[in-house]
């Protein structure tokens, strides 16, 4: 195992951004940027021994600051959407930035995602990034200190552990917004990937992508991924919820409260045989099929067009601050938020015809 560091460029104010490269003895690499605690690349050998980069992303700081849709970024203090872009805690009212269509707060307007974080290497298999969000940043209460540890094991498990604490009572909901393409980022759309999600229910949304109050069973709908199927099989089916969001872009309900690390699904690239098993301690996961990717050029100048990457953003449910019936993510001042998500990579049998 090794961790090495190289320069990745500079922020407009001159702050240097570093890339940390975690590599195990099998040659698997995970690249993490201090900009937004971003997962930039995962290099993994496919069934024919060819190394693929499994993440959408960019080659420069400037591209991350000007073209990104959160590719690989850490999102917080509250990922996903807060309807009305405002929260109430006790008798206090906090106005947030309405950065989505002037109505929702989405991904905290990038508060955590486009800042320089500090990094240390506590051990030869991990890098720890930290960020202190000042009280009131983006409208959110409290000075919030967050640490994210990315760790790669010898058996190709990438663990992401989050720790957060704030000086005021606040809602905390962190995620990583990796866009995966298990055939490699330059291979086209992800519709041929198979996906399994171990969830019986999901939270349907209104026209602004805010949970509409129902808790819908996946049974008998295109949202049923309890048995693995191709992402593309029913993505354009005539279902009101798919039409509303232009394809899958929904929170799946995994459990009622944070729990021990549990496997929640699996994806596989049809061209590479690269498999990814997903584990998390969190109660929800947003399955987003990259429907809004609009062709911006990413790594190597390759355009990131519609559905060329998919996200499985482990999280508390969207709009939890307005939903007492959802698993709570309100943390008292000084109380620690902790979560872990693991993406474990492997390859299905070698292609006999290769
Ligand atoms: C959202 C999508 C959004 C994407 C990029 C996802 O978490 O659900 O609707 O386009 O993030 O912001």
In words, what does this structure look like?
It contains two helices and 29 strands. The protein has about 350 residues and is mainly β. The protein has one domain (about 1-345): Beta-galactosidase, Chain A, domain 5. A nine-stranded antiparallel sheet has the order 11-12-13-14-29-23-22-17-20, with no helix packed on it. The site of beta-D-glucopyranose has 10 residues, from β24.
Structure summary:
With 354 residues, the protein is mainly β. It is built from 2 helices and 29 strands.
List keywords for this structure.
nine-stranded antiparallel beta sheet; 3% helix; 354 residues; Beta-galactosidase, Chain A, domain 5
Pick out the low-confidence regions.
none
List the strand order in the largest sheet.
11-12-13-14-29-23-22-17-20
N-to-C terminal Cα separation, in Å? 30 Å
Mean pLDDT: 97
Q: What's the alpha carbon Rg, rounded to whole Å?
A: 19 Å
Quaternary state of this entry equals single chain
Bound compounds: beta-D-glucopyranose
User: Strand tally, please?
Assistant: 29
Question: What is the second-level CATH architecture?
Answer: Distorted Sandwich
Strand proportion? 35-45%
State the major sheet: 9 strands, antiparallel
Highest CATH level, the class = Mainly Beta
| Tally of individual domains | 1
The shape, in one word, is: globular
What structural category do the secondary elements indicate? Answer: mainly beta
| Secondary structure: helix percent | under 10%
**How many DSSP H or I helices?**
2
Q: What do we call the CATH topology?
A: Beta-galactosidase, Chain A, domain 5
């Amino acid at each position: 195992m090794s961790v090495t560091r190289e320069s990745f460029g500079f922020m407009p104010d001159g702050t240097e951004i570093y890339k940390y490269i975690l590599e195990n003895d099998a040659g698997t690499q995970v690249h993490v940027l201090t900009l937004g605690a971003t997962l930039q690349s995962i290099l993994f050998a496919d069934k024919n021994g060819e190394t693929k980069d499994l993440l959408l992303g960019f080659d420069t700081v400037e591209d991350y600051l000007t073209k990104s849709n959160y590719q690989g970024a850490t999102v917080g203090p509250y990922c996903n959407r807060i309807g009305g872009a405002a929260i109430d805690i006790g008798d206090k009212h906090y106005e947030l930035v309405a950065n989505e269509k002037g109505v929702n707060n989405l991904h905290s307007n990038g508060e955590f995602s486009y800042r320089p974080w500090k990094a240390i290497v506590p051990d030869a298999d991990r890098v720890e990034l930290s960020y202190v969000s000042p009280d009131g940043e983006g409208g959110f209460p409290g000075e919030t200190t967050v640490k994210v540890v990315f760790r790669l094991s010898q058996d190709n498990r990438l663990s992401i552990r989050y720790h957060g604490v704030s000086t005021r009572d606040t809602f905390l909901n962190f995620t990583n917004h990796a866009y995966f393409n298990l055939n490699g980022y330059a291979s086209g759309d992800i519709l041929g990937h198979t996906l399994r999600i171990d969830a019986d229910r999901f939270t349907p949304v209104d026209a602004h992508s805010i949970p509409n109050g129902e808790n819908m069973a996946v049974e008998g709908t295109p949202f049923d991924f309890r048995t693995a199927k191709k992402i593309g099989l029913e993505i354009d089916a005539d279902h009101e919820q798919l039409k509303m969001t232009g394809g899958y872009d929904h929170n799946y309900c995994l459990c009622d409260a944070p729990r021990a690390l549990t496997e929640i699904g699996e994806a596989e690239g049809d061209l590479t045989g690269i498999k990814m098993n997903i584990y998390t301690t969190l109660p929800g996961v947003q399955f987003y099929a990259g429907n809004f990717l609009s062709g911006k050029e990413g790594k190597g100048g390759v355009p990131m067009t519609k559905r060329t990457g998919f996200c499985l953003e482990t999280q508390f449910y969207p709009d939890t601050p307005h939903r007492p019936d959802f698993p709570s993510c309100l943390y008292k001042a000084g109380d620690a938020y902790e979560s872990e998500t693991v993406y474990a990579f492997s390859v299905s049998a070698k292609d006999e015809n290769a």
